Structure formats: structure tokens, C-alpha cells
Amino acid sequence: MSKKLTKRSEDYSKWYNELVVKADLAENSAVRGCMVIKPYGFAIWEKMQAQLDKMFKETGHQNAYFPLFVPKHLFEAEEKNAEGFAKECAVVTHYRLKTDPNDKSKLIVDPEAKLEEELVVRPTSEAIIWNTYKNWIQSYRDLPIKINQWANVVRWEMRTRLFLRTSEFLWQEGHTAHATKQEALEETELMNNIYAEFAEKFMAMPVIKGSKTESERFAGAVETYCIEAMMQDGKALQAGTSHFLGQNFAKAFDVKFTSKEGKLENVWATSWGVSTRLMGALIMTHSDDNGLVLPPNLAPTQVVIVPIYKGEGQLEEISKVANKLADDLKEAGISVKYDDRDTQKPGWKFAQYELQGVPVRLAIGPKDLEKGSVELARRDTLAKEFVNQTEVVEKVKHLMVEMQDTLFDKAFNFRNEHITEVDSFDEFKKVLKEKGGFISAHWDGTAETENKIKGLTKATIRCIPFNSEKESGSCVLTGKPSEQRVLFAKAY
Amino acid sequence: MSKKLTKRSEDYSKWYNELVVKADLAENSAVRGCMVIKPYGFAIWEKMQAQLDKMFKETGHQNAYFPLFVPKHLFEAEEKNAEGFAKECAVVTHYRLKTDPNDKSKLIVDPEAKLEEELVVRPTSEAIIWNTYKNWIQSYRDLPIKINQWANVVRWEMRTRLFLRTSEFLWQEGHTAHATKQEALEETELMNNIYAEFAEKFMAMPVIKGSKTESERFAGAVETYCIEAMMQDGKALQAGTSHFLGQNFAKAFDVKFTSKEGKLENVWATSWGVSTRLMGALIMTHSDDNGLVLPPNLAPTQVVIVPIYKGEGQLEEISKVANKLADDLKEAGISVKYDDRDTQKPGWKFAQYELQGVPVRLAIGPKDLEKGSVELARRDTLAKEFVNQTEVVEKVKHLMVEMQDTLFDKAFNFRNEHITEVDSFDEFKKVLKEKGGFISAHWDGTAETENKIKGLTKATIRCIPFNSEKESGSCVLTGKPSEQRVLFAKAY
Ligand SMILES: [Zn+2]
Ligand SMILES: [Zn+2]
């Protein structure tokens, strides 16, 4: 398979699809809409998981595990939630296969093994979890409950794309229960902030924090907070959501507690999640026409060392230097791979690691042995320089921070250049068509207008940003009064 | 809920069920046969996962993720494997629910959303993975592939017990592909050895390594190696299996490679797994009538500190000492919890941590402040002693090793006392009835005899141990010649 990618400027979508497959991140499977996450892709996801898990635990959350299946009668209980997910549910109806009497090499569903009640493969776990919490909560002493689960979920999607939209995906879902509205709202905000911090510090991906309009809210939520990122093609990507669920699930599942004052009250809830979709966001934020570009904080291999040699003897000499360097780098907390395979040429290796986004490549040839140098290439800028062997560790340590910052700054500038204030609908359409990105515009606050704009332009309201100032204006479509600009964009 | 458990001697099975629930490890869910793993139980599972994952990676394995669903035609492909799992499969037949026209608050399966081909919820992933490997393997250069996945699987069980047998469970499944039979056999053995090392060093649970008879083999395997442990009630528990799959899956999925010599050959395969069943094994190996007993290597909290005080002032003084101790212990790599909640009394806390198996409990009261001491209680022996505050860290560090060893030794002695050599079938039945444990006996090597013995006694051949010597004898049932003793037992 050629390593050459379609250029982003030619066909962004094709570039993405090719990159995901060629960089060995993921591929489509034999199951419609479900992906195989390959070892290299999974290693990046594991780094994301480890960091998020740490941040969840540091803020008092614990992991647990709830069933994959939701009995239909529980799934139905919270009406809006059920309505929102019913159209895309995988449903288990039978619990046995049997040999096909017409063809002994085949299996058929055994009609005698029909379930009394169908089981929904979880598209999200509020229903099964709140049905469980019901038995855990009697008194204010049992609150708060702050649980997270790492799990697979299934939402039957008609159009799928690797990482961005798949029928099965991996995610974490936090589900918390609180005695007061205030505490639940604070948790909702805290988790949205943790997602933002993760996105910015680890993914080097700037995000805008805000709340969703009613039409874009999670089914069953009172408020949905979100972080929104900007991809290189000018489309937005929702990277994480945190929901204030009010007492909706407590009411649906009859979860009450006795307060300190002895009153029986409904419990307040939140839920929040990020998924393997973040992989898509990470790829699209930084990568270039040569392949993946990874921020050092999430790169499974931060430094690769490639020997350039003729014959065993030379390899041996180079390996001495390389192994010493690798050891020193490891000691400094850097993940290193020394690739001394003789089955591939250096040129092939260079192309491979470039494609896979390894942040720093060190090459050592016979001349470097003489001069005590190595050639250092950084993946983000593609710049190369010769570095004294004794200075490599310091240089690389510095570069890990430097590159993380550089990638963030670049994405931050790009994102900021792609927020355009517009004050008329003609301008709105023009900017959306010619430039893309976020459009900051006044909106009259109605779902009707939001819907009309979506119908006319395919742009949706990504969020009502938390940090924007109140400003009087008139709706870009209807001219009706508005108090604040919101962010529109076409989105993944 | 009372914390008092049924005694093991009264009803071992009831003791286990109560312990799992009362120690907050897991509970049954609203979904038949599926469990909720509660935060405390999950924290232990996470410690197991982390250690196993480390051992897998150290031996060159990488994690990946494959789909939850297996299309029926792939599931069928390896005949024996399909046959083995067909009777206990959850089957997805539809991808949508719709509003019940007769009752708008209910949902029904949408008959128009019937899948063209049914999807089996994976009971194990050989089929979907080998169908994927097919595209990854062309040449010997693509081998070996050594992949592991952490996942949930579903096997529809009629009689379920928390952790030991549930319809959904969590596990890891390794799937490797090799160029030669020899290499695949070595991998099979390596992974069985890793399981044994994990069981003994981390779970403090002695195991016997061996191979399964044909009737007890994994469906589709040529050989199944296993580790077998002995529970306190004299029943055996299969704690992990590693399968040499020969070329069965390569043939079923047509996975061939070009060898170094340029010949087209079928790939050799292994698969291996351990599951949340290990939680059941851990609980039953060490726990007592007071509750859970955890080996320090797997305890989420290794030390708990409980203050014993009257009034705020005293608590403040005690907390100074407790926090200092907690910091010092943490620095020494010990996980500590200081439980200064005022909502529960010390007696309640003592009972709770005993029930939950925290290895070391430190209590600090006003007299300890005067004397500079703490009361140290170890969970395994229930022994208490006063320790000088300045000596706590050294004492605890030593105890972590000591208790790990003590637990292993105790289980090891118990296990060894429960291996009985018998040479007649009357003796076999007598030992099985009166003493239980492993019965080491000669067997004529036929599935027929094995089956008869199972029918007569409910004992199965747990394994043909690797470490046992060849010894001529005659089958305990048929009197036919035998070359080696095998281990029989009733099993979980
Ligand atoms: Zn700098
Ligand atoms: Zn000792």
C-alpha cells in the first residue's frame, strides 16, 4: 500500500479516511458501521484514557461497571431519553442459535429461545444505572454518588466514519447523584472544565466551552454543557458533553432520599462523556499532508531512533550509541523506540514514522559516529538539525514541551482566525461558504429560527459560549432582538 | 443491612453470596444473569487488570479493540467453535424500536428494522479477529501478531452466580498468529505461565498448571492449557486458560502467509483469557467468616487509619498524627485512607473495613497520643499490637510482604492437603464425599470413562498436570492401563 496521502486541499474527507487507515489507527470491520481499533490507534486511546481516568479519580470519582443490556421496560422509563435513542438501538431478541435443519453447516436463530422481554444494547446507561441507584440511595448520607464507567456503547448509525461516527464506540460515561440542584450543577460544570483542560493540555486542541440550545441537548437533559473544537476544514467538532439532568431520571426511576431535615426529596443527577471520537478530533486538529502529527503528551512513542548503516560492523557501532541514548531518554521519562530491524530500509522507516506522527526522529549514521552527533527531525515543523550526542536528552526534554506548545498555539491561532462575527444573513451565508469556521451571530432564541438556519445552510448552533459578553443585537435571520451572540458552524 | 455473614461451615455457598454483596463488590442487576460491579469490587479488578496488562506488554503484546458483534456467517465459519457457543448466544435481530401504536408510552421492536443478517454478541472473538487477521497477514514479515483485548463478552447462562458465572462478564482475550507450530505452542505455554505467576504472586493463590482433556477443551482448540486453583470448600476453580488453536482458525478463515522459503502456509494460532471470574477465586481463596481477606498486592486500600476521639479538639490532635502517618505511608508506596468521617462510629468502621478486607487497620486514640503509639490490626490473622508511631512505616512495609506470603502459604498448605492419591473407585467416591479437593488418580485416557465418572460423581478431570511424573497404573474406574495420574475434582 502506498504511503502517499491525498492532499488536504484536494479532498479533506478522503485525506482523513486514508490517514486513519495508512497510519494503522483503525479500519472498518465485517460488521456494518463497527470499527477495528488497531494497536497503534489503541495505544493513543490508552494514553487518553489513562489521563482522563487520573483526572476523574483526582476529583473524587470511582469506576464501576453496569450491564451491557437494558431491559426494554427500563429503557422506556425516561420518556425523552427513550425517544432520543429508540431509532438507533440494537435489540437482542433471542438467546440461542441452532443448527439449520436444511443445512447442517449453518446456524439459525432458535425460535424457541425468544426472550420474554427484549434487551436493548446500551446506547447510554442512564436507565440501567438509575434503576440501580434507586437501591443504593435512601438518605443524604448515601450522597453524592460519583461513578464513572469505561464501556462500549452501540448507536445504530446509517452513515459511519472511522472514530467520528461508528455504530459501536468506546467511551466513558460518568453518572452522579446529588442531594441538591446546586451541587449537581457544579458537578456538570466541573466535568466540562476537566474535558476542556484535557483537550487543551493533552490533545493540544483549543476548545470553546458553552451550553447547548434545547434542540441540541442530550435527550433527557435539562442543560447540556459542551466543548467545541475547530477542525482544519472549518467544521466544528463536539469533543465532550456534560449534562445536568435535573430530577428527570430520579422521577422516572423513583429515586428519593431523606434529607438532613427529614424530608423525602428526588435526587439530582448529572452525566458526562467523551468517546473514541476524540481520536478523530486529535487527528484532524494537527495532522498534515505527510500524515499524523501527535502532541508529545499523547504519543505512544515520543522518540524513534533509526540507524543508517552498511554492514553488521557499522550497525554494531551505531547500536552502542543508540542504545545508550535510548536508555538515557527512558530515564528522563521519554518513551523511545530503537528501530534496528534489518527487514526495512531507513527511507521506509522515515516515511512510516512520519506517517504515524512520532514527534521526534533521531537518525545515526557513520558520520555521526565520527562527529559525535545525531540528526534530529521534529515532526511538527519537519525541521532537521544536527545535535551533539551529549545534548540530545536535554534537547528532547525541552522539545516535548516546546512541541506541545507549538501545536496548541498553531491550532489556537487557526481556531481564532476562524471565528467570524457577522451581522446579516447574507454575510452569514457568504462566510460559511467561503471561509467556514465558527460564525458568531445574534439569534432570537427560538428553535424555529435555529431550525430554519439549519435547513438553509446546514449550520447548527454549536454552543452558547460561557465566556461571551452580553450584547444587544438583532437576530441574523429574523431581526428580532437578541441579547448575546451564539456560535454557528457546520459540524462533524 | 446486618454485616454478619453466614458461617462458611454452615453454608459455604450462602456465605459467598452474602460476602460479595455485603462487602460492596457486586450485585445482581435488573438484567437476568448480568451483574453490577460496584466501585470497591471494580477497584480490585482494576488492580488485577493493571498488573496483567503490564505482564502482557512486557512480553511483547499490544492492546487493540475488535467489534462487539459477530455476523452470523463468520460465527459459523469454525465449526467446532460455533457448535460450542451457539447454545448460549445473545442475538441481535433488529436495529430500531418504535412507539407502540396501542400505548404511546411504550416502545416495541420495529419489524421494518429487521437485520438482513443476525449479529451474535461475542461470546469470544476468534471469529471476528481471524476474519480481520486475514487482511493483515500476507508474508512471514507480518508475523507474529500478538494482540490482547480487554472487553465484555456474553454467554447466556441459565444458572448464574456473581463473578463465578454471569451472562455478561469482563475479560481479556489474547489472540496471536504465528509462522510456526513451535512458536505458537511456546506462546500458549508462556501465557499459561504468566497466568500462573499472576495468580501466585498477586492473588496469593497457588495453582496447578496442566492441560485439559479433549472433552474439557475450548471449542475449536487443539490443546487447552489451564491453571486450576482449590477453593476452601474443596471445589476446584479454573482460573485461566491458554489455547493452542493449531491451524483451525486459519483454515476456517483462509489465513495464509508466504514463508521465508516462499511457500504458502496456514498461520498458527493461540488464544488465552482470564475474566472477572478471578474475583470469585480471590474471594473464595482467602476470605473468612468475618468477611473479605485481600492480599496486599491487590488491595485498593492497604491501610486504613481510624481516629478514636471525643470532641473536636481531640480529633484535631489525632488528625495531626494520622495525616503525618498517612503521608509517610504514601511516600513509602502504600495506599492509605484516613477515615475521619463523623457520621460513623469507630466500631462501625472497624466492622466495615474487616468486612472489606483492608489488610492493615491503624487506630489512634487519646492514650496513643500520650504514649506515641498506634494500635495496629492485621486482617489475615486478626492479631493486634501496639506500635510506636515512629516505627509504623517500617512495620507496615514489612507487613505488606509478610501478609502476602502468609496468605499464599496458608492457601498453599490447604491446597496440598487437598490433593489425595486414590487407587480404587470406592476410595475415589469416599474422598470426594468426605474430604473433597483434588483427587489424583489413574485414568484410561478415554472420554467415555471420563464421562462415566462425571455422571457417577459430578467430578471432572480438571487437568493433566504438567509437573507430574509418569507412573504406570490402572484406571480407577475401568482398571485399564494408565501412564499418568490426572486430577479430578468437583469444580466451579
Ligand atoms: Zn523553547
Ligand atoms: Zn517477616
From TrEMBL, chains A, B:
Residues 27-295 form the Aminoacyl-transfer RNA synthetases class-II family profile domain. Its main location: cytoplasm. This is Proline--tRNA ligase. It comes from Salegentibacter agarivorans. Consists of three domains: the N-terminal catalytic domain, the anticodon-binding domain and the C-terminal extension. GO terms for molecular function: ATP binding; proline-tRNA ligase activity. Catalyzes the attachment of proline to tRNA(Pro) in a two-step reaction: proline is first activated by ATP to form Pro-AMP and then transferred to the acceptor end of tRNA(Pro). CDD domains: ProRS_anticodon_zinc (cd00862), ProRS_core_arch_euk (cd00778). Pfam families: HGTP_anticodon (PF03129), ProRS-C_1 (PF09180), tRNA-synt_2b (PF00587). Gene3D superfamilies: Anticodon-binding domain, Bira Bifunctional Protein, Domain 2, C-terminal domain of ProRS. The keyword Transferase does not apply.
